[in-house]
Design goal:
With 213 residues, the protein is of the alpha+beta class. Helices cover 44% and strands 21% of the residues. The protein has one domain.
Length: 213
């Protein structure tokens, strides 16, 4: 029995290589697809919890265990389905007063900064920030990414008017002054502009409502 010729042997080796490569590709592809399907529901659930935590923070509410967030959201949050941009009405537990939470974006140093911004009228009818929560950011760690730090968000509560940036550490008690972040001017300016845009929009809406009344 004659052995395969060198050309025939080489052809078989190529066919086997192609077959082996396709088999490995199919196995890995099927594995990745199965993992995607298996985790898809969990990923969606985590995204919902992340948004619900952000809404509570922007509304000035204390943290709630994740297990209680879906019920709270169902009972206390109304989604404005007709709005062009995400918009939520959050009812506060203590007195039922509503807080408006909107999502707004701006250009940071490395990409989009997206915030949930809470705003509500006080007893004098002045619209003030109730808080903010960072929904998306890709700023420099240790610099612009510090907008995720608790102190930065907490300083926004009660602020109103046209906000001005002060040096980090100022902790101004004036209603229109907020601290920036040292070494992250572009990021801090982006946040400042987002908040001023929200406050200006609300002031305009309030003025229109007063004219209508």
């Amino acid at each position: 029995m004659s052995s395969d010729s060198p050309a025939r042997k080489k052809l078989k080796e190529r066919a086997w290589t192609i077959f082996f490569t396709l088999a490995i590709t199919l196995v890995f592809g099927a594995t990745v697809s199965a993992l995607h399907v298996a985790t898809q529901e969990r990923v969606a659930q985590n995204e919902k919890l992340f948004l619900q935590r952000a809404l509570r923070q922007a509304a000035g509410l204390p943290k709630l265990p994740d297990a209680g967030l879906p019920e709270w959201f169902a009972n206390s949050v109304t989604v404005d389905a007709g709005a062009l941009r995400p918009r939520y009405t959050v009812r506060l537990e203590e007195d039922g007063k509503p807080v408006l939470v909107v999502e707004r974006s701006g250009a940071g140093l490395w990409g989009t900064i997206r915030l949930a911004v809470g705003i509500a009228a006080d007893d004098d009818g002045i619209s003030k920030l109730t808080g903010i929560a960072v929904l998306e950011q890709g700023e420099t760690p240790g610099l612009g990414a510090r907008i995720d730090e608790p102190w930065y968000a907490e300083q926004m509560r009660g602020k109103h008017g046209t906000l001005k940036r002060m040096p980090e550490g100022t902790r101004s008690e004036r209603p229109d002054e907020i601290d920036g972040i040292t070494g992250a001017t572009i990021t801090a300016v982006a946040v400042q502009e987002i908040l001023n845009r929200v406050l200006a929009e609300q002031d305009s809406a309030d003025a229109e409502q007063r004219r209508a009344d």
